[in-house]
Structure formats: C-alpha cells, structure tokens
Amino acid sequence: MEKIKKSDALLIVDVQNDFCPGGTLAVAEGDQIVPIINNIQEKFPLVVATQDFHPAEHGSFAANHAGKKTGEFIELAGLTQILWPVHCVQGSQGGDFHPDLNRGQRMKVFQKGKNPEVDSYSGFFDNARRGDTGLSEYLRSQGIERVFVCGLALDYCVKFTAMDAESLGFETFVISDATRAVNLSPGDGSKALGEMKQKGIKILTSKDL
C-alpha cells in the first residue's frame, strides 16, 4: 500500500472527449477510467489535469498535409512525427474534458499542444522540449515531491508525462487501472509500462492507494 502524503499530487492526463469512445482519436475503454479517477481524487491534497489543446492548423493532423493519411510519418520541428486524425481542437466539444470527470474548484489545468509547429505528448514540455507548460514550476511551488499519473493514453501522453516527471526529480507512480493505451501496434501499452519501470517509475493500481 502507498500512503498519500501532503507532498503528493494526482496528475490526470488528457481525459477528453476525443480520446474516449465516440471521439476522433478514441482509446478503447477510455471512458472506463473516469469513475476510478473520480474515486481517487479525494485522496490527494493536490489534483492537476493536462488538456490537449490544439489549433485547427496543427502540424500533427494528417488533414493538414495534402495526400497524407493518419498513421503516416512526416518531419515536424526537426522530429519524426506520426500523423493523427484532427483531435482536441481548441473550443471544440472533442477538446472538452469527459463530462463525467469530477472537476472541483481545486483542479488546476495545464494546456499543451498549442504550438502548431510541434506536437506535445508530455504535460511538462513539447516533444522538442522547446516549450514548457509551467507544470513543474507549479508543482514545486506547491511543495510536491511525488506525482501519481493517470489518464489517456498510456503509450503516449501518460508515458511521456511520467518520464518527464521522473527526469525532473519527482518520484513518479503510474496508476495502471486508471489509464488505457492507444495500442497502434498490439502490446504498445505493455511495452510502455516496461519502459517506464526501467526508468524507475513505479507502477501500482488504485487499490494500492
């Protein structure tokens, strides 16, 4: 069992309509994590959420590249970029948080993916690490030492957020039953968990809290 301390934060990654069933980039069973996340929120002294918040002209959208399809690769901001369907556009219903996600007054939201020139999986930095969301500075200002990561999707935004948290010096945990994977290739979710463990990130379930 992991006892929650005053210096702990729950970090909810991208629990948005477009990543849930019916959305444009739906993660299978993505909506099933919402009750689990709602249940554990009460245990934490600080709750932070990230929100994918793309301009319509974002460079990661296949629709913005003539003749390109979702799943193909291009170069964007000097990085290899997989092309996605249009998702989580600023001001769209798809970009809104899942309607069942509890959003108390205390939940602070950090938006990412606003720069059309570079994608942003992590809640801390864009993929080129040129832009900083201010999340790490905020967590430090609140005296946070450990972060517990959940949300969507395990093999992309959850993984990169957790890895950045660990590299920034926060003790990092991933709540495995409160996340789901895209699994573009079968087993991507399991692979992501293995990669995170290798980096020293601890994997637990909501029942361990």
From TrEMBL:
SUPFAM superfamilies from the UniProt entry: Isochorismatase-like hydrolases
Isochorismatase-like domain mapped to chain residues: 9-207
EC category: hydrolase
Annotated EC: 3.5.1.19
Keyword annotations of the record: Hydrolase, Metal-binding, Pyridine nucleotide biosynthesis
Name of one Pfam family that matches: Isochorismatase
Pathway: Cofactor biosynthesis; nicotinate biosynthesis; nicotinate from nicotinamide: step 1/1
InterPro entries for the chain: Isochorismatase-like_dom, Isochorismatase-like_sf, Isochorismatase_Nicotinamidase
Xref: CDD domains: nicotinamidase
Family recorded in the similarity comment: Belongs to the isochorismatase family.
Designated name of the protein: nicotinamidase
Organism: Algoriphagus jejuensis
